[in-house]
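Notes from the 1:1 (GR / supervisor)

We went over the backlog. Supervisor wanted to see one worked example end to end before approving the batch request, so GR pasted a single chain during the call. The sequence is below; no edits were made to it. Supervisor asked that the structure be written out right there so they could see what the output format looks like.
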Amino acid sequence: MTPQAALAAQIERYRQMTREQRVAIALGLHELSCNMARMGIRRQHPDADEAEVNRLLCKRLELLHTP
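Structure output shown during the call:
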């Protein structure tokens, strides 16, 4: 299967899903990306406790919305 055909098939599968199913996928991907960012923060700040890791994550997320 070509990449274009795979993309078309995936889009068709998304179109067949309910709104709730698509939102669940989006939320799952958001959680996955936050967990990956937390892992990176822990590598950069090995002595940080969970509260500090979450604070640094929030700071990173805020940077995404800064004009």
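Supervisor's comment: The first helix runs from residue 3 to 16.
Batch request approved.
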